[in-house]
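About this split. The held-out portion is used to measure sequence recovery: a designer receives only the structure tokens and must propose an amino acid at every position. Recovery is the fraction of positions where the proposal matches the reference. Here is one held-out target exactly as it appears in the evaluation file.
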């Protein structure tokens, strides 16, 4: 349990929401919170400086970190909070942090050290190559404000959504999603979009479509079986919507506190990059999004 929750901050409002969400997540998992502000030549720090030198010559970075730490401790007084000013470009800093973290948390938009994270080709580098989960806190507070609260949600909103593609990479998504739901006492909705069934129906082959639907649903259930046995009290829903995966997950996110998906589809680990589905939900989901990478 030594791996902390790491959150990147640049002092922006979006980063502040990410810090609050990460503090709640650290408390939920019984882990420490590590708050990181990255600086490089673009932000007034030469790359490669020792941390103590970077701290000494970047009062603004220290101010940002101190403010974030105060906010985290105010929200979660018992939380172990550490901070560090990292003299590296932001994407590189968070990639390196991810190797030693339980998960990395970032806001959807930024102003300074994490400007534009996950909005363009540069920012997507964090999710492309991170080790383990990267959580993008979209919109409001997500469920950081308390169990069951979501972006613009009322008290009844308490569902974790897991999007799976029925490849071997679905295992890491389900492992993370089942634990996330259990920690929140939330319902877990497993979604596998199968638009091909709608195509078969439109082609006039209703019997074949029904058979395909049955096979897909059985396969989804089989994928979930090991984790269902480990979490016997968890409420579980399995859905096979007949629409594009991005639409299916974005629709499901409107009732969710967290959406979990894999980093890539049908790609070898050595070329792991955020695929089109993860990219789409990062930009359009109505709740925080966890992009889960296999480790190693």
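Reference sequence for scoring:
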């Amino acid at each position: 349990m030594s791996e902390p929750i790491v959150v990147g901050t640049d002092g922006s409002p979006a980063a502040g929401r990410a810090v609050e969400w990460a503090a709640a997540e650290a408390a939920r998992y019984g882990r420490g919170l590590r708050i990181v502000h990255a600086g490089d030549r673009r932000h007034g720090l030469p790359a490669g400086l020792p941390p103590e030198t970077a701290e000494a010559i970047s009062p603004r970075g220290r101010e940002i970190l101190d403010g974030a730490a105060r906010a985290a401790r105010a929200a979660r007084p018992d939380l172990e909070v550490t901070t560090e000013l990292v003299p590296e470009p932001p994407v590189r800093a968070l990639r390196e942090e991810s190797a030693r973290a339980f998960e990395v948390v970032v806001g959807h938009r930024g102003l300074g050290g994490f400007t534009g994270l996950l909005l363009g080709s540069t920012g997507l580098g964090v999710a492309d190559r991170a080790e383990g989960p990267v959580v993008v806190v979209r919109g409001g507070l997500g469920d950081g404000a308390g169990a069951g609260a979501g972006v613009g949600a009322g008290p009844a909103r308490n569902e974790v959504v897991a999007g799976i593609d029925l490849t071997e990479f679905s295992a890491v998504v389900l492992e993370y999603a089942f634990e996330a739901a259990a920690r929140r006492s939330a319902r877990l909705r497993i979604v596998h979009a199968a638009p091909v069934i709608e195509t078969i129906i439109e082609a006039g082959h209703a019997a074949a479509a029904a058979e395909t639907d049955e096979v897909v649903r059985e396969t989804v259930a089989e994928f979930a079986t090991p984790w269902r046995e480990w979490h016997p009290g968890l409420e579980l829903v399995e859905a096979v919507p007949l629409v594009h995966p991005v639409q299916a997950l974005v629709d499901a996110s409107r009732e969710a506190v967290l959406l979990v998906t894999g980093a890539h589809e049908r790609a070898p680990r050595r070329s792991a990059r955020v695929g089109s589905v993860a990219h789409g939900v990062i930009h359009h989901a109505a709740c925080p999004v966890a992009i889960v990478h296999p480790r190693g």
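Annotator remark: The longest strand covers residues 33-38.
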